[in-house]
Design brief:
Blueprint lengths: L1 H15 L4 H13 L8 E3 L12 H9 L19 H13 L21 E4 L3 E5 L5 E5 L18 E7 L2 E7 L4 H4 L11 E9 L2 E9 L8 E9 L16 E3 L4 E3 L9
Parallel strand pairs: 4-5
Antiparallel strand pairs: 1-9, 2-3, 3-4, 5-6, 6-7, 7-8, 8-9, 10-11
Length: 265
């Protein structure tokens, strides 16, 4: 009788403790099955094939033939954005100081429009977007809301909350530091900028529709369409060590600076 009572109590305790590990695993497997799988390493289509010189093949062809590239290059750099007077002043200052500045990476939003490859790791709870420059975006898709203003503070990659609409990842990003501080040709937007993205597969390409609104620097919404293709030259993501950044600039293209004497052997 006592053993039967103990067994009954144990069964009741398990019932009250919630789903079992097997049930959780089965449910999570089912949630994974609903998600797209964007395997491989992706690079901005207009930047595909870029070498250490920092100039995309499409840009070189444009210079030689005097034609616009078939795919826009660096759409988020700021040219053509609806800048107001404050935005125009910031763009002028960017042009003045850019040649003497080094990049600390790409940061957001420029990491999404770069010659550097991107990797998408998708789980039910969040999507990670990773670049070799140490850029990592955490896009939370677990149902949480965007934090209140008192819980937001500007960072290089901002705070991103997303959800899935079918196979489209819908993302809202806030609290991004002025991107131009981190990357010398990034748009000098304010920390009040609001970024909206819709990322999906279209055939063999990834497509991102981006809308940026910033009451400080823009007169209205700034829209851009980014496309990505798989870069078959990558078989792993190698993170770059900025302790040995020897990227230079000769006024036209990036160069490799000589090593410091103490680094030469």
């Amino acid at each position: 009788m006592r053993l039967a009572l103990v067994a009954a109590i144990g069964a009741a305790s398990l019932a009250l403790s919630g789903p079992t590990y097997a049930q959780d695993k089965a449910q999570r497997t089912e949630e994974f099955a609903k998600l797209p799988y964007w395997s491989g390493y992706w690079v901005s289509e207009g930047q595909a094939g870029t070498t250490i010189g920092g100039i995309a093949p499409a840009s070189i062809e444009m210079r030689e033939k005097g034609k616009a590239p078939a795919v826009p290059i660096m759409s988020l750099s700021g040219f053509g954005a609806p800048w107001n007077d404050e935005g125009k002043a910031r763009m002028a200052e960017r042009a003045r100081i850019a040649p003497g500045r080094k990049a600390m990476g790409w940061g957001y939003p420029m990491m999404m429009d770069a010659a550097a490859p991107l990797q998408f790791l998708i789980t039910p709870e969040e999507t990670l977007i990773i670049s070799p420059y140490g850029d990592v975006r955490h896009i939370y898709t677990d149902g949480r809301a965007m934090p209140g203003e008192e819980d937001l503070w500007p960072t290089v990659w901002g705070t991103s909350i997303g959800h899935w609409e079918g196979d489209t990842l819908v993302v809202e990003t806030k609290a991004v530091k002025n991107p131009n501080i981190y990357f010398h040709t990034a748009p000098p937007l304010s920390e009040q900028a609001h970024y909206a993205e819709r990322i999906r597969m279209d055939g063999n390409r990834l497509v991102s529709e981006v809308t940026i609104e910033d009451p400080v620097t823009l007169t209205g919404p700034w829209k851009a369409r980014l496309t990505y293709v798989r870069d078959d030259g990558f078989d792993r993501m190698v993170q770059i060590d900025f302790d040995n950044d020897r990227t230079g600039f000769d006024g036209q293209v990036n160069t490799i600076e000589p090593a410091h004497p103490e680094e030469q052997h």
